[in-house]
Amino acid sequence: MYWMGISLKNQHALTRMRAAGRIVAETFELLGEYVKPGVTLRELDELAEKYLKSQHAAPLYKGYRGSPPEHPPFPGVICTSVNHEICHGLPDERMLQAGDIVGIDIGLRYKGYCGDACVTFGVGQISSEAQRLLNVAQTCLRVGLEAAQLGNHLNDIGRAIEAYAKTQGVGVVREWGGHGLGKSLHEPPSVSHVREDHPGPRLRPGMVFTIEPMVNLGTHEWEILADGWTVVTADASLSAQFEHTIAITKHGTEILTQLG
């Protein structure tokens, strides 16, 4: 069923998406044990790939070309964005160092439906500045989730996130936002993380989408590296991201990518 071009998931689809989200959350639980100094991004990617295979889930990112079609395919199962990298960082041979922060984004398909989430981890002992950024980014996600309530407008989410971020003196990336999710990784609607001039559609039961604010200690502006994928802060400031996939139901908002 569609409403305003947005796919409204039935109970069968939501059951499958809960299962996909659970595997995403379990993969984060596994990787969290290995995010420590001396581990390479490639090793984390291999661990994620092995776990997804054990759960009969398929990675969404590996080989993904994005737009345009001639864009280089993404080489990894997970995105690993370190320090000033905002998103889409490559899981290569770089070794994590104490004090780093690393955003890990996991996307998978299970029994025809997708799951997608991101967590930023501190590596060993991190600075008070980096810890504050992680705390602010987590709270940005939380206030976005609190605004994503049945009957509210879609753009209430971005309004709440930006309002909180301003009180903390951080920048919220504008051009990279959340998105609908279902049988495809990217579906309508687009979810802004900043205030928009229009309210957007009202949230209705069956809507499933991600909220994934990307928060920078400095400017909200960004650049893409020569690899065609890695998005970095324009001023080399630290960046952190937290993301969940949620479903709007008649009983309230359900987070699909968490355990418990």
Structure overview:
It contains four helices and 17 strands. It has helices at residues 11-32, 41-54, 128-147, 156-168; strands at 2-3, 6-7, 58-59, 78-82, 85-87, 101-110, 113-122, 171-172, 178-180, 187-191, 208-211, 214-216, 222-224, 231-233, 239-241, 244-249, 252-255. The chain has one domain (2-255): Creatinase/methionine aminopeptidase superfamily (Creatine Amidinohydrolase). 27% of the residues lie in helices and 27% in strands. With 260 residues, the chain is of the alpha+beta class. The model has no long low-confidence stretch (mean pLDDT 96). The chain is globular, with a radius of gyration of 17 Å. β13 (222-224) and β14 form a beta hairpin. α3 (128-147) runs antiparallel to α4 (156-168). Strands 3, 4, 6 and 7 form a four-stranded antiparallel beta sheet that branches.
Defining key terms:
3-stranded antiparallel sheet, Creatine Amidinohydrolase, globular, 4-stranded antiparallel sheet, 260 residues, alpha+beta, single chain
Name the quaternary structure.
single chain
CATH fold naming: Creatine Amidinohydrolase
Low-confidence stretches: none
Q: What is the assigned CATH homologous superfamily?
A: Creatinase/methionine aminopeptidase superfamily
